[in-house]
Amino acid sequence: MEKSKYQTSRVERLSYGGFFLGQNIIYVIPFQFLTYFYTEYVGLSLADTTLLLLIAKVWDAVNDPIMGAIVDKCNFRKGKYLPWLKFVTYVLPLSLFFLLLPIQGPYLLKLLYAYITYILFDMIYTISDSPLFSLATVMSSSSYERNILMSHGRLAAAVAAITSAAFMSIKANVGWTLTVGIYCLISFLVMFPMQMKAKERVNYIRSEDISFLKIFQLLFRNKYLFIYYIGYMAIGTTNTLQIMAVYFAKSNLGDEAFVSVIMAVVILPVIILAPFLPYLIKWFGKKKLTVVCSIATILLSIIQYKSGYENFILFLVIAAIRVAFMQIPLMLYGMFTSDCIEYGASKNGERTEGMAFSLQTFVTKLSAALCNTICLLLLGFYGYVQKAPRQTNSTLEGIWIIMSLVPIIGYVIMIFIMHFYNLDEASVARMAEQNRTKIQN
C-alpha cells in the first residue's frame, strides 16, 4: 500500500503507538518487577506470592472473556472502542501506582493489600487491552495498514521494555514510590493524545440483538484462533528472561543494577527490528517467520547456556541476538489475532473483535502469571533464599538454567502447533475483501 493511500494519518498512527507505549510501560513494570517487589521489598513468601498470582489469573479467566463480550455488545455514541480507552487513560496509571506502593504494617495486611490491588490492576488492564487491539480493525479496512498500526504497537512495546531497564537505577536514587510515580506520569502523557487523534472510520455490519451466549459460541468456532494461542501460551509461559533478569543480576552478577544493562542491550535489537515487521511478513509470511525464529531461539538458547556469563560482553551479545529471535513471534500476536477475526467473520458472518482480543489478553496475562509461577517454583526447587547476601552455587546454576534453557520448551511447542495453523496472508486478504464487500452491500 502506498503512503498516499493510507486511511490513517501519520499523527493518528503515532498516537496509536503512543497509547501502546504507555500501556506497555504499565504492563512491563509489574511483569518484570512485581514478583521481586513482593518477595524482596514487601516481604511476602514465595508460597504466598505464587498463590496470589494463580488466584488472580483464575479470576482473569472469568473477567477477560466477559469483558470481550461486553465490548462486542456495546456501541457508544462516540465510538465502539475509543470510550473505553479514554476511561483507562486516567485510571490505568493510578492502578499501577497503588499496585507498587510498599505499604507498612502486619504481614496479613500487606498480603490483603497485594490481593486487592493486583486483582483491581488486572481488571482495569483488561478494559484497556481488547478495545486497543480492536481499534486497529476499525481505523482502517486494509489488512496491510492494520499490520502497520500493530507494528507501531509492537515497536512501542519494545521501547517500553527499554524504559524498564532504567527502573532499578532510578529507584536507587529516588526510591521505589517516586520511581513508580515517574513511570505512571510518563505513561499517562503518551497515552493521552490518542483520544483526540484516533478515528473509528470502518463500520462493520453487526447483529443488533446478538446475545452474550452467541458471542461465546462464535469464539469457540474460530479454530485457528485457538490453535495459534496454544502456541503463544507455550512461549509466553516459558519466557523467563524478564522475570529472572533481576534475580540473575543480584545473585549471579552481584548487583541488581546490572539488570538495567541487560535489559537495555537485549531489547535494542527488538526496537531496530519492529519497524520492519510488515516487510518481513510480506516476504516470509507470519507462519514461516514464527517457525524460523522459534528454531533460531532454540539453538541460541543452547549456545547461551553453554557459553555462560563469565565473559559479560559475550553474554550480552548472544543474549541480544537470542532475544531478537525470541521476540519476533511474540510481536506478531496481534496480527495473528486480526487474521483470525477475518476468518471468523467469513466463516460465521459475525465480527467479534472484542471477544477475540479478550482471548489474546487472557492468554497474555495467564501465560505471564504461569511464567511467574514456574520461576518461583524453580527458584524454590534450586534452594533460593529470600534476602540472602549470597546464594549457593547450585542455586546460581539453577537461576542460569531458568533464564537460558527453560524458554526452549515453549518454542518447541510453537513449532509443533504451527503445523496445524493453515491461514496464510493471501487467504486472509480474500476473506477481508469478502467481508468488506458485505459492508458495501
Q: What does this protein look like?
A:
This protein has one domain: Up-down Bundle (Growth Hormone, Chain: A). The model has no long low-confidence stretch (mean pLDDT 85). 79% of the residues lie in helices and 0% in strands. The two termini are 24 Å apart. It has 20 helices and no strands. The protein is mostly helical. The longest helix has 33 residues, at 10-42.
Q: CATH top level?
A: Mainly Alpha
The percent of residues in helical segments reads over 70%
Head-to-tail CA distance between termini: 24 Å
Assign the CATH superfamily: MFS general substrate transporter like domains
Low-confidence stretches: none
Count of helix runs:
20
Largest sheet: none
Give the overall form: globular
Strand content: under 5%
Indicate the CATH architecture: Up-down Bundle
Number of strands: 0
Find the structural class using helix and strand composition: mainly alpha
Q: What is the subunit arrangement here?
A: single chain
The helix/strand series, from N terminus to C terminus, equals: HHHHHHHHHHHHHHHHHHHH
Question: What's the CATH topology label?
Answer: Growth Hormone, Chain: A
Number of domains in the coordinates? 1
